[in-house]
Amino acid sequence: xxxxxxxxxxxxxxxxxxxIQRLKAxxxxxxxxxxxxxxxxxLADGMNxxxxxxxxxxxxxxxxxxxPNSSITAVEIDPVLHEKAVEYLHEKAGDRVNYxxxxxxxxxxxxxxxxxxxxxxxxxxxxxPVAAAREIFRILKPRGKLVIxxxxxxxxxxxxxxxxxxxxREKFKQVMASRGGNLxxxxxxxxxxxxxGFGSIDLEAVVSHSDxxxxxxxxxxxxxxxxxxxxxxxxxxxxxxxxxxxxxDEFVAKGDRLMMSFWLMACGEKNQ
Length: 272
Ligand SMILES: C[S@@+](CC[C@H](N)C(=O)[O-])C[C@H]1O[C@@H](n2cnc3c(N)ncnc32)[C@H](O)[C@@H]1O
Description:
The protein is built from 11 helices and 8 strands. With about 270 residues, the chain is α/β, with parallel strands linked by helices. Helix 4 (about 60-65) packs parallel to helix 5. The site of S-adenosylmethionine has 25 residues, from helix 2, helix 4 and strand 2.
């Protein structure tokens, strides 16, 4: 894979710890529905599971609970997050997690090894998503499945009162693209799977709503750290984020505010 991709935990947010808490909140808002869909797509206890781009291990933790008789191979490129996951999961994982510090595009893992693979909020950051999907195809067993979980810039969130996100979203799209990512990846997931050789392609949406899980669950996602980091790097000006910050304060102050988020889950099968 050429290029490094658009995610580096220690420069994505102002503080690494803030970024880790943001990732944790992103797992918690939708885990139950994602688990429901993963089972619908065929994930079952006892399977040998690959998790690509596993980060600090919060999603891995949920998989361990869901699949008490499975072993999970967690592939993570970032040495800092790889270490965080090893520390975080140390006690509860026992020997059920195989930690691999590598790129998903070149895992070094043997062919035909896994029953099921999951890549959550990873493909949005990859410069060569089809090459990554091909590598996962290679290491899946015949009939094995890959589920890619991502969103799309034009879905992402809905709020009431609305947040003034247009300028910030356009800047994020540009910055991500300049680093090899694609914030509009959601709409491309089915064809990425197809181009990598997968068949039996399916697509589901996961919708989380504050009226169901509570507005508090969404609040860490409004962390302005990633936007302020772009300001710090000179990639967006304070005046360009001003209207977003005003609308965010108005949103937070509003008593009956609501928020929805949308993830997409695309599944493909290695048919041969
Ligand atoms: C937004 S985080 C998502 C973490 C986790 N999957 C989750 O849902 O909480 C994206 C993760 O993918 C990792 N990553 C980025 N490029 C990668 C690559 N080429 N190979 C493996 N991991 C990668 C990042 O370091 C980061 O941990």
